[in-house]
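Support reply, case 0932

Customer input (verbatim):
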Amino acid sequence: NVLEKNLNSDLTINVSTNSNDPPLHTFVEVNPVDPEDNPSYIGLVDETGIAYISDIRKGIYSITLSLAGFETYILYEVELIEDEIFLTVELIEKLLPVTDLSYNILGSNGYTGVQLIWSPPLSQISGNGHSSDNRALRGYTITRNDEVIVEETGDTLLEDYPPLTGLYNYGVRAIYDTGVSEEIYTGDIELI
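Our regenerated output:
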């Protein structure tokens, strides 16, 4: 008599996004911690939000999920030792910052100010090749020395005349329907 043991696992990953975009075509990589022990596996998330990879040799793996416009999601040292493994993953949307932030020193009536100019964030395209309505850019927030001076504007140009001379550091953040990008700074500007 020969005793058979199943040496493979089936992996099911339920994928969603924090912006409710469909995770269709999310690329899934399953790589062994020790590449000499087991092969690597790949898969794609289908229209139901599920990635299914069958017949994975049992072992310890890292699992990477990638979708355009979202942060790469990595699970380290996942033990695939059961016959069936079920995981749930939420991908987090990347909120791209403004680009090309620059400034000009202004003189008006003997008083110095600053003009900020920036470009909108680079276009974000979701994994299915279409721009997402959830990723709509609403405008920009502007700070001076980490204090908000403009809550929200649609312009990509701002003139500011602070009440006192001194060093000022301006920042600009892109505001999206689903959140706010990281802040991009000018560095210190001396106004006299």
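We compared this against your earlier run and they match. Two observations from our side: Residues 124-134 have pLDDT under 50 and may be disordered. Residues 13 and 47 are 13 Å apart (CA to CA). Please reopen the case if you see a mismatch on your end.
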